[in-house]
Amino acid sequence: MKKILIIGIILIMAISFTGCDTGSAALKGTEEITMASIDKYIDTDARFVDLRNFSDQLSAGYITGFELVPFFQFLEGRALVRNNGWEFSAADIAGKAVLENIFGDKEGAIVLMCGSGTRAGYVKAALEEIGYTKVYNAGGIKDYSGTNKILGDGVFNGAAALPAEVNMKNIDTLLARPNAKYVDLRNVNDKYSAGYINEFELISFFEYLDDYALFRNTGWDFTSADIANKAVLENIFGDMNQEIFLMCGSGTRAGYVKAALDEIGYKTVYNVGGIKDYEGKNKVLGDADFILKIK
Fold first, then answer.
1. Backbone phi, psi, residue 154, to 5°
2. How distant, in Å, are the alpha carbons of 43, 165, 254, 278 from that of 257?
3. Would you state the CATH architecture of domain 28-150?
4. What residue spans define the domains of the chain?
5. pLDDT by residue (tens digit) across 21-79?
6. 10 Å Cβ neighbour count for 131?
7. Cα(242)–Cα(202) distance, rounded to whole angstroms?
8. Rounded CA gap, 177 and 156, in Å?
9. What confidence tens digit (pLDDT) does each residue in 204-248 have?
10. Rounded to 10 degrees, what is the CA torsion of 221, 225, 228, 231?
11. Topology of 171-284 in CATH?
């Protein structure tokens, strides 16, 4: 009976010790943590911080256990100002209290990551400057091949999904989308005499694109032969993967330019229509008496 009691006590002690081993051992500040070794540290008692943008996390994926503190969308300009690119100096600390509020206990371990390791290295230097003692730059997710990655969708850009049809009736709800380009194809004189919609930049069709980047061989019926200068279109409209919203007086020029951009590889181009149909609240009123004078 005594032997059974001793064995029972030993088993209880073993279970107790096992229960205490939660995998939350504290980091010392001397470990080498990289994307190759991060998986074995993910359950340690530390803060794991992803410095990428919100859209990057959901498009490119993320590592389980990391919380998001976006560098460009939150820290830059608020807590840190890069006076010399990515070369940190003490003068870059713009909001010490912001850093302390966000990153907490200065004695606790903080593991940083980003896209390539550059932002993580910069923030590590900043935190060490204000007294943090256990900060690690784990590198960039591009080098991660472990088992804790949550896959992204590859396309999310931080914006809400677009409606099935984009037009003058709903364009107000679609203004200021991240990385989008809004283009007014009317003449300069039209913009200032008839007014314009805020957010739209002017790229005049008749005064610039027509007979220079595009040549209308059959009126407004676009064909691939109408591309007179592909390089000009690419230079003016930029990234082929960004959303481009086109408008003009009635929608005709916008439809034609959309067809041209689609032809050369642009992915998401929308003909919003003509300003004559716009009744929203973002119109800047023009001066009907304005006449453009070229000096």
1. 80, -5
2. 54, 18, 5, 20
3. 3-Layer(aba) Sandwich (3.40)
4. 28-150, 171-284
5. 434 578 988 899 999 999 999 999 999 999 999 989 999 999 999 999 999 999 999 99
6. 10
7. 17
8. 12
9. 999 999 999 999 999 999 999 999 999 999 999 999 999 999 999
10. 110
11. Oxidized Rhodanese; domain 1 (3.40.250)
Q: Which residue has the tokens 């990385």?
A: 179
Tell me the two tokens of residue 152: 């992204």
pTM of the model: 0.65
The token pair at 72 is 């460009």
Closest residue by Cα to residue 157 from 179, 141, 140, 173: 179
Both tokens of residue 167? 């037009």
Domains 28-150 and 171-284 in one fold:
yes
Task: Give CB contacts under 8 A, 24+ apart, made by 256-263.
Answer: 256/205, 256/214, 256/216, 256/220, 256/222, 257/183, 257/185, 257/205, 257/209, 257/214, 259/222, 260/214, 260/222, 260/226, 260/227, 260/233, 261/233, 261/237, 263/222, 263/224, 263/227
Is residue 196 a contact partner of residue 182, using CB atoms and an 8 Å limit? no
Closest alpha carbon to 248 in 274, 276, 221: 274
